[in-house]
Write a structure and sequence with these properties.
The protein has helices at 28-41, 62-75, 80-93, 136-175, 190-207, 210-228, 240-256, 262-281, 308-316, 329-334, 338-342, 345-350, 354-361, 477-481; strands at 45-46, 51-53, 60-61, 282-283, 288-289, 369-377, 385-393, 396-404, 416-423, 431-437, 443-449, 452-456, 467-473, 495-500, 505-506, 510-515, 518-526, 536-543. By secondary structure, the protein is of the alpha+beta class. It contains 14 helices and 18 strands. The strands form three sheets. Strands 6, 7, 8, 9, 10, 11, 12, 13, 14, 15, 16, 17 and 18 form a 13-stranded antiparallel sheet that branches. It has a three-stranded antiparallel sheet with strand order 1-2-3.
């Protein structure tokens, strides 16, 4: 069904034009995050073209520019307002509006200089998440919502009207996405799903378009129902960057969403429960979260950034956040959004209870242990589940996941991971050694218990079951310089590992490749071609320092 009728609704503004919002007051920690974000964005703002220079998907980043605009408008000093308006002009010009029936209609270009995707041509053929990113509708769209709600009186009626029109266009493209024909936005894809509920519900309320309002309310109800049936788990589970975006989307719904929208009314419950789960997984001594991770780039937050710790920074201060040094490249990437996050930090703060707050800031006692067993629902329309088990002590933590699927997940998926304090004297957090199972198989049973990790491949008819590949990173320099050499799991700093791998063949250890900037040792146990039964490996651990 063509959705052109959606654009027939006129833009609704309050009588007399836009209404000034009260300027958001920032806490000391939120202000510190805001200032850091502006300090890294100011030097990379192209004063001529009014875009942030960042060579991620091209010379400039439309998404980073949208994040920066919120900071410019909140600071509003010198030429900030002029630059913000110029940047908004560039953002609006970068929306893909010239092919109504295309799957990229209404999203934003990654960089303003790139061509529009060209079906039937080799110039720039359509490729999801390559030549176009449909999630930019939500990333840029939620940012435009914040800009209008916080700063409409600064940017003026004309820009507000054009932003609302752009949001109507993005809503059309966003509503077409249903997980078919190569697209993957379903209810279980949590972070864009929650953002989409906000953007469509917001513009629906602004334009009094009941079709948009109803769609957003349905999405909000389904997202919440799937979370509750977990119970209380998002399907994009223990994903440290994307949990950060979930918090952004829920907080933005609370602060900017229509007050009677389902996503807005459910957001307090979702935020509180999400933070409670985050606190259960967080080890404030190691500065890391126990696995497994559905999606992770960084596997050690003290060395490489993710979005979730930015909320720790804004709530509790940089010194108490699981963050790397302030010049770390992933942090300079993630914190581009810091100013926008700071503006909703107060809403987040109000939705963390005292018990959760204490656990987020208090390291486990030397004798403390935690065991978590979580069920992850994939859909409201089938009974597919995954099970995550996690065991944590102060200096050692283990996580694993059980799943039976047909399609391989990306290298972001971490079905099993072990962290330990490889150098407890390192500051401000211990130097975390860690190793993870690379996801070659699609049916995996990885189960964590006290000091033990068991992994098997129950379905050997599937591809990827011929080896268990472990990626080991973060060996302390002093251990290496003392003449020690990694040879499988036989000798590691501060960790004894007893391996039982009946019938498997350990391969020579290699070093030098990397995954998401973590350089690793590859420790592989191969399954012989004539192997009979279920390939299985068990690792028993003892912390030795």
């Amino acid at each position: 069904m063509r959705l052109q009728f959606l654009l027939k609704a006129s833009v609704v503004l309050f009588a007399g034009g836009v209404v000034a919002a009260k300027k958001t007051s920032l806490s000391k920690n939120a202000q510190n995050l805001f200032d850091y974000a502006m300090s890294i964005n100011d030097p990379r703002f192209d004063i001529s073209y009014k875009y942030i220079i960042y060579p991620d998907e091209g010379p400039w980043s439309v998404r980073f520019t949208a994040w920066y605009v919120a900071g410019l408008l909140h600071r509003n000093q010198g030429s900030d307002l002029e630059n913000a308006k110029g940047a908004l002009e560039g953002i609006l010009a970068s929306q893909q509006t010239d092919s109504y029936d295309s799957v990229w209609y209404g999203t934003w270009k990654l960089s303003p200089d790139e061509p529009t995707p060209t079906p039937g041509s080799e110039l720039f053929p359509p490729s999801i998440y390559n030549t176009y990113d449909p999630n930019w509708r939500e990333f840029v769209g939620t940012q435009l919502v914040q800009i209008v709600e916080e700063f409409s009186s600064l940017i003026g009626d004309s820009l507000v009207t054009r932003i609302i029109k752009a949001m109507e266009i993005q809503a059309i493209g966003a509503m077409r996405r249903n997980g078919t024909e190569g697209d993957n936005l379903v209810t279980a894809y949590t972070n864009p799903a929650v953002m989409r509920a906000l953007t469509i519900g917001w513009v629906g309320a602004r334009t009094q378009n009941q079709t948009l309002i109803d769609y957003a309310n349905t999405q909000g109800e389904e997202i919440t129902q799937l979370f509750k049936e977990g119970p209380n788990t998002f399907s994009e589970y223990n994903a440290l960057t994307y949990y950060g975006m979930d918090i952004w989307a829920l907080a933005a719904n609370l602060k900017y969403g229509p007050k009677n929208a389902s996503m807005t009314t459910h957001a307090p419950f979702l935020l509180k429960e999400l933070w409670a789960d985050i606190a259960e997984h967080y080890n404030a001594y190691l500065g890391n979260f126990v696995g497994p991770y559905d999606r992770a780039n960084s596997r050690d937050l003290t060395q490489h950034s993710a979005v979730l710790p930015l909320w720790f920074w804004g709530l509790f201060g940089y010194e108490k956040a699981p963050e790397p040094n302030k010049m770390e490249l992933d942090l300079i990437y993630d914190a581009a959004q810091g100013a926008a996050l700071a503006l909703v930090m107060g809403v987040v703060d109000e939705n963390i209870n005292a018990t959760t707050r204490a656990k987020l800031q208090t390291p486990p006692m030397a004798t403390e242990e935690r065991f978590l067993n979580k069920t992850i629902r994939e859909s409201l329309y089938n009974n597919t589940i995954r099970t995550a088990t996690s065991w944590m002590s102060q200096k050692l933590m283990i996580g694993g996941q059980e799943l039976a699927e047909e399609v391989a997940r990306s290298k972001q998926f971490v079905p099993a991971i072990v962290h330990w304090a490889a150098d407890a004297a390192h500051l401000p957090f211990p130097y975390n050694g860690f190793f993870s199972l690379y996801p070659t198989a699609t049916t995996i049973s990885a189960v964590a218990t006290k000091n033990r990790l068991e992994i098997s491949y129950p379905n050997t008819t599937q591809a990827g079951t011929s080896s268990f590949q472990f990626l080991l990173s973060n060996i302390p320099p002093a251990w290496n310089l003392a003449g020690n050499v990694v040879d499988g799991f036989s000798s590691l700093p501060c960790l004894s590992v007893n391996v039982s791998a009946p019938g498997l063949q350990v391969q020579p250890t290699t070093y030098g490749n990397s995954i998401y900037d973590h350089i690793y040792y590859n420790i592989t146990y191969a399954v012989p071609a004539n192997f009979a039964g279920v390939p299985y490996i068990a690792l028993d651990f003892a912390y030795t320092c």
